[in-house]
Every structure is written in C-alpha cells, then in structure tokens.
Amino acid sequence: MGISVLLEDGPVDKQSIGALYKGKTLPKHLADLANNSVSCPKTGRQSTQKNTQQIFLVPPKS
Q1: Which residues contact 35 (CB under 8 A, 6 or more apart)?
Q2: Is residue 51 assigned to a domain?
Q3: Structural domain harbouring 26
Q4: Of 13, 8, 45, 11, which is closest to residue 29 (Cα–Cα)?
C-alpha cells in the first residue's frame, strides 16, 4: 500500500522523510502522514507511524 505525494524537491532514491528534512521543518502534507492510519497487509491491524525515520519517500519508476 502506498500514498502518493507530489514533491518539487523529492529524493532521487528511497529515503525517510526524517533524513531528507533533517534540521528543517517538514512540509504540512508530509507531517500529516504521521496521522494517517494504515493497515498491516498480513494481520489487518490498524496503526500509525509517528517516527519520521520510518516513513519513506520512494521516487516513481520512470
């Protein structure tokens, strides 16, 4: 499962939002990702990920 966000200054390779914006303020639309509830594909359990080091940006495949 993925959530698509458009970024003008996104990473070239997979990178956490915490690493990409280290020392900077997260844009609101990225900070809001920590409030999204997601389902585990194996167990179906709902959870949220508050740790920005564990929320990853993955560039689209060309």
Answers
A1: 48
A2: yes
A3: 20-56
A4: 8
